[in-house]
Design goal:
about 220 residues, alpha/beta, Rossmann fold, 8-stranded mixed sheet
Length: about 220
């Protein structure tokens, strides 16, 4: 069921083609990165793409509610397995999680990688969002994280899938960020900036991509 919502700019409006491309989006918490990534998945539903959301910072139920506020109820897609969550957050409650797509701890990159690979291999056309690689970095050494990210990017590209990796600004080692930038297709930067009236706006700009349709800082909400 659709609800009244602000219109979030689409990735395809910024870079055109998004199939088989991986993007790193960077910015401070609260700058709109998560909303942008959720809209990317929602757009995929209309194009018959399956979606996977790897959540490290909140419960899957919270993401569902946020997607509803963007105007799309993902429940039917979840029921049909067209949209699935990899849960790397719920273990923090200390309770046993009866979910094959959940990990017992975010430090277990091996189990996390196995789950991601299974979903990547089982889908014909997939959009993967990892929210966030910064949180994974808190619990894992830089090189281990880089190896993990490189493996997922390689798998996505091998299957002609696409994805978004979300990073919080200032939380990760610079050499790790540069290593990730070297293997993705594009980078998008997010920042809250004041407009001419002094009102704080969430803005973004494409740092680089194979095809840039809109350059410079633009508003996230149109």
């Amino acid at each position: 069921m659709a609800t009244e919502a602000r219109t979030t700019i689409r990735l395809k409006n910024l870079v055109g083609k998004t199939d088989a491309q991986i993007f790193l989006i960077i910015g401070p918490p609260g700058s709109g990165k998560e909303s942008f990534a959720m809209q990317y998945l929602i757009d995929g539903f209309t194009e018959k793409d399956n979606g996977v959301f790897l959540t490290t910072d909140c419960f899957p139920e919270e993401i569902i509610e946020k997607m509803k506020k963007l105007g799309t109820d993902p429940t039917p897609y979840i029921s049909s397995k067209a949209f699935e969550f990899i849960d790397a957050f719920s273990y923090r409650t200390g309770e046993k999680i009866n979910n094959k797509l959940a990990v017992d701890h975010i430090q277990d990159l091996t189990s996390l990688s196995v789950i991601v690979k299974k979903l990547i291999d089982s889908q014909e056309k997939l959009r993967l969002v990892i929210n966030t690689i910064s949180t994974i970095s808190v619990y894992n050494p830089g090189l281990a994280l880089l190896d993990f990210i490189q493996a997922q990017v390689a798998r996505l590209k091998q299957k002609n899938h696409s994805g978004i990796l979300i990073a919080h600004e200032g939380m990760m080692e610079e050499k790790v960020i540069q290593g990730i930038k070297a293997i993705v297709d594009g980078v998008i930067e997010f920042k809250p900036l004041e407009d001419e009236n002094g009102v704080l706006q969430r803005r973004l700009r494409v740092v680089y991509a194979p095809n840039i349709k809109k350059s410079g800082w633009i508003n996230l909400y149109q």
